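Continuing the series of single-chain predictions for the mutant panel. This is the parent chain; the variants come on the following pages.
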Amino acid sequence: MAITFQYNKTSLQQLEKQLKMRERSLPTIKSKESALRMEVTRTKDEVHVLESRLENEIRSYENMMVLWSEFRPDLIRVRDVSLSTRKIAGVTVPVLENIDFEIKPYSLFNRPSWFTDGIELLKGVARTGIEAEFSMMKLELLEQARKKTTQKVNLFEKVQIPGYRDAIRKVKRYMEDEQSLSKASQKIMRANQEKRRQKEEEIAV
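Parent structure:
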């Protein structure tokens, strides 16, 4: 990123203001990046646990395959999923609050005794699957925010802060050189005026 500036005092003040702002912001952004990095790791572990649990639950479901042929899958469905949001290191993520299931009435006398356990098993599988989906959504949002924050840290640390420091150095050097030239030219002018005055005095004598 090229930093535009002019070789004058106003431009120098602007550059110094921009540099201070970035130097003050950098520790906060680094702290946010660190918090997001930790949360991403924690959420990855959470997703892994939920996916493993889902696999185990589906495996136990497969072990009862012979019985499932008698089961009516339309007996249970997810009616509603309620969620809220919360902020993690400034990032809004979804939070699963509750899963509401609708269970159709069925006759306990005409159906096998394990139907009730079957419904509970399906509720568990559905709940774990939905929790895993929410954790994946959360992970994607956190990972995206972490990448953006890391990019901002790198931009400030490796590009903008060194760039502003370099620009300030150039402007200061230019202004110092200009001041030195101005002093030198004033000295030459005074020396010339002094010579002229001496000559005029000599002529007058």
